[in-house]
Amino acid sequence: MVTFLSGGTGTPKLLDGAATAFSPAETTVVANTGDDVEIGGLLVCPDVDTLLYQGGGILDRETFWGVGDDTDHTHTALQELADAADLPTDPQYLDDERQTAGREIAAWRRFSGVGEFMLIGDRDRAVHVTRTSLLDQGYSLSEATAILADALDVDLDVVPMSDDPVATVVHTPEGPMHFQEFWVHHDGEPAVEDVEFRGADRAEPTPGVLEALADTVVVGPSNPVAGVGPTLALPGVPEALRETTVVVVSPFVGDEAFSGPAVEMMVAVDAVPGTPGLPDAYPFADAFVIDETDDSALDAPTVRTDISIDGREDAARVVEAVTRAVEEVRRPDP
How far is CA 271 from the centre of its chain? Predict the structure, then answer.
């Protein structure tokens, strides 16, 4: 049994090779929900959906976001209507009172759908409509995710980190903004002053998460702050990880990230950026997998390989390094 902590696109890319070492039926993936966003009344769960679409064989593998070969008629029509009505097309974050009114799971992450600032494909939108409708019928986010996974024939057990609202808010000189506004609309360009996981102190891990963390855990090559940080901010998660075997795959080569604002965010939260900062970001880690060209010296067992992942063969190579690290440090069963 193995559990992956996933956020962004790094860990899903690693999962392309997971089946070479781990049975899908015995693999759980705990997905970040901190960058979920409600737009136009629909709850979009980017990190959960990437895993569902990947497992269902319909992922857009160029972007690792959305459904491959999707159309965007509704998105385009929303843009055209906003232009014709002379309505704003930049992100319209709803006011504080509307952020916490209505659907609780969407708190602190609500945007108007006018001039939709995120491109949502038509088939992708059907998933968001179904998910939101299930939530309105009384299902939890984890229950809705399980229903969608079954519909898409996903073999992995994909589990949202929490059924409660947690919003990743990036503090910038331009003011605080939801992660999606920061990353999608602003291309991650505003300086990062701090990162907040709003609601994490009041949230609980979804049923089964702490149980899954009793298995061997692999922290994938995700942004340690925005990708994995929201999960680690949940009560009980760090404590559970201290009691099990944890292997971390670096998302860096030295002090440079493969993608995304990981370096900037680590600096913003007063962490050493890059591979040298991983032991502080993951103090419960038993071993690390880092790039063969990375000369970082870590005070823990370290397996080196080419950790760049551009396809399934690359992913299988990195997974093989993960299994070597696991075998080196695996804790005996209680």
Answer: 20
Give me the residues of the chain with pLDDT under 70, please.
Answer: 331-334
- What is the C-alpha to C-alpha distance for residues 6 and 218, in angstroms, rounded to an integer? 9
Distance of CA 103 to the CA centre of its chain: 22
pLDDT of residue 331: 61
Sequence-ordered list of residues with C-beta below 8 angstroms from that of 125, at least 6 positions apart, any chain: 42, 74, 75
78 touches 112 (CB < 8 A): no
Whether 212 and 241 have beta carbons less than 8 Å apart is answered as no
- Report in angstroms the alpha-carbon separations of 322 from 14, 31, 70, 253: 10, 19, 34, 17
- The confidence score (pLDDT) of residue 205 equals 97
The pLDDT of residue 259 is 79
What pLDDT is stored for residue 333 in this prediction?
A: 54
- The separation between CA 22 and the C-alpha centre of its own chain, rounded to angstroms, equals 21
Q: CA–CA separation, 306 vs 104, rounded Å?
A: 43
CA distance 88 to 325: 51
